[in-house]
Amino acid sequence: MAPLRVSDDNKLLSSSVVARVRAFDIELMSNQILLTLSGSCLLQPLPRKSVKLELLDMPRFVAEELELRGLNLPVEMIRGQSSSMLEKLRDQADRVHCPCLILYQDEPLDFYGNVEGSTLVLTNLSRAAKMLGCSELAVRVNCPPESVVTVASSMKRALEAVQRYEVNLLIRPSVKPVDTPELLMELVKRIGGFHISAMPSFANAHATGGGIQTLRKLAPYSAAIEVSFAGSTKQGSTSGWNFDEYVSSLLNLGYLNKFSIDWCGTTNWVQGVQKAREQLLLLMDREDSVV
After folding, report:
1. Whether residue 74 has a cis bond before it, omega within 30° of 0
2. Which of 136, 247, 273, 150 has its CA nearest to residue 198?
3. How far is residue 103's CA from residue 172's CA, in Å, rounded to a whole number?
């Protein structure tokens, strides 16, 4: 039997069908992405008010006012709090359907010069994350490129020590000095296993000088991405990078995990976070952030 021949018209039709299927796939995948908040902004007073939110009121505010479905907590938010308070925060967050997902620290850990101290910090943070109900702990790491083998080995041993808390570790890149995507990828691969991932950010991606390329390299290794936002222009730009392009590139790549809105602007932070959420929903072609 002679092979079937496709006419030029059918080729065009086939291309059109493929494009529609691809668009449908992207929309379907985007509906699986959970929109959450990097909670550093909650440490600021409410706009036009002189008061800060009480700790136990934060999950409800994030769920009802910001309409997000997950809270990622900076260490500063819980420093000095008792274990019973952390458990109350966990229960309150679950009650309003805005669970605590990630505990994160900005100050880098030094697994090259202070392995014992860094392991102790990691252990204490893992215990706090467990009390909060967080399944992930995100940290930055002081790791000069020439020390990556040593640092990865030290972190691997530390990670084994904290596994009893059932918390996965995410590595966050630094902006000053700028961590390259290659460094982050090398650390994740050398540590290895199912309990280690990355948590890149738009701010770091921009600082590398190749934002989209950096995000595309790190996305396959990432359990969450901080979508840094400082307001936007009509062209979608924010603080020097194109927010829309960054998000679209991740959607086109098939990224499926968490987006964590990281407000890094200087204006009204509540309106800024709401604007970031609206922009994400528009790019993801979604009407609601509930997953």
Report:
1. no
2. 136
3. 12
The answer to whether residues 256 and 32 touch, using CB atoms and an 8 Å cutoff, is yes
Question: Three-state SS for 105?
Answer: coil
Other Cβ atoms closer than 10 A to 249: 18
Q: How far apart are CA 110 and CA 226, in angstroms?
A: 22
Q: Is the pLDDT of residue 214 over 60?
A: yes
What are the beta bridge partners of residue 263? 229
Residue 85 reports pLDDT greater than 80 = yes
What's the one-letter identity of residue 142?
N
Q: Tell me the C-alpha distance between 171 and 130, whole Å.
A: 18
User: Residue 48: its pLDDT value, please?
Assistant: 80
Mean pLDDT of the region 3-23: 42
Tokens of 229: 């936002």
- For residue 177, the 8-state DSSP code is T
C-alpha separations of 263 from 60, 95, 277 in Å? 18, 25, 11
pLDDT digits (tens, 9 = 90+) for 194-206: 899 999 999 999 9
Q: Per residue in 218-259, pLDDT tens? A: 999 999 999 999 876 555 455 678 999 999 999 999 999 999
Chain-centroid distance, C-alpha 270 = 19
Place of tokens 């966050």: 172
In the chain, the amino acid numbered 89 is: L
* Nearest-angstrom CA–CA distance, 177 and 61: 34
3-class DSSP state for residue 254? coil
Crossing angle for the helix pair 181-191 and 211-218, to the nearest 10 degrees:
10
Model-level pTM? 0.85
> Is-contact 68 277, C-beta < 8 A?
yes
